[in-house]
Structure formats: structure tokens, C-alpha cells
Amino acid sequence: MELSNLVIQNGLAPPGDSGVNGSSSGENGDSGGFGQNGGGIDNNGILTMNMVTVQKNSAGDGGDGGDGFAGSHGLGNASGDDGGDGGSGGYPGFGGGIYNSNNPDKQFTINPKPRRGMV
């Protein structure tokens, strides 16, 4: 694919999914999902850019960790269960402006805007 003479800006890749909450006494919440890559461009092939500006783009945020389920109260002399731990947040995506997959078959070329005096 070839892109020429354009501006790619204010792109936002989707965030990761939230982790699942614990559903029974003492159960931990799941971890959040990974944010998606490439807020402006997520390149998975051959890409050439001619006089293209890429600005103010963001990769996706990691998803929120799920909530741990509350513990139970003990009856009489019995002790109750501890509450579950919340899940960890997910990792954010890579490449806010441009993400180029790490594959030897992929190619990414940038041809900048010529400066005054250049031929």
C-alpha cells in the first residue's frame, strides 16, 4: 500500500477488555486485556509513505482488572473467607502513531517531504 500527501491525526486504537470480576466468595478478578496497537497506522504488510504527517495518535490503553469477590462472614466460632484480589490491569498497545509488525516479510518505507533547495 502507498500513502501520499495526507495527515493522519487524532487516531485512537481500542482499549483492552476489562477483566472478569470474581463471582464467588474469595475468588480473584481476572486481568484486563491488552490495548490494541497502532493508533494512527497498524501496518501488517508493505507500506510506503510519501509526504505523510502522522501526529497526535495513541495506542489503546490496557483494560481494567476485574474486581475480587468479597469474603464471607464466619458463623459462630468459624472464621470467614478472605476476599479475592482484584485482577491486574492490561498492558497498553504499542505504536501510538505507527505500529509495524515485527515480521521479516513486512516492509515500511518513509519518504519525507523534500526540503527547500532539494531536488
Report on the architecture of this protein.
The protein is an all-beta fold. It has one domain (1-110). 0% of the residues lie in helices and 24% in strands. The protein contains no helices and five strands. The protein has strands spanning 2-9, 41-43, 46-55, 98-100, 107-111. The strands form two sheets. The protein has a three-stranded parallel sheet, with no helix packed on it. The protein has a two-stranded parallel sheet with strand order 2-4. The radius of gyration is 23 Å and the shape is rod-shaped. The model has no long low-confidence stretch (mean pLDDT 85).
Helix content: under 10%
Count, helices: 0
Strand content: 15-25%
Structural class: mainly beta
Provide the succession of SSEs.
EEEEE
Q: Report how far the terminal alpha carbons are from each other.
A: 25 Å
- Strand order across the largest sheet: 1-3-5
Please state the overall shape, judged from the principal axes of the Cα atoms.
Answer: rod-shaped
Give the rounded overall mean pLDDT.
85
Number of domains: 1
- Number-wise, the strands total 5
Low-confidence stretches: none
Report the C-alpha radius of gyration, rounded.
Answer: 23 Å
- Biggest β-sheet strands, sense, barrel: 3 strands, parallel
Concise synopsis of the structure shown:
The chain contains no helices and 5 strands. The chain has strands at 2-9, 41-43, 46-55, 98-100, 107-111.
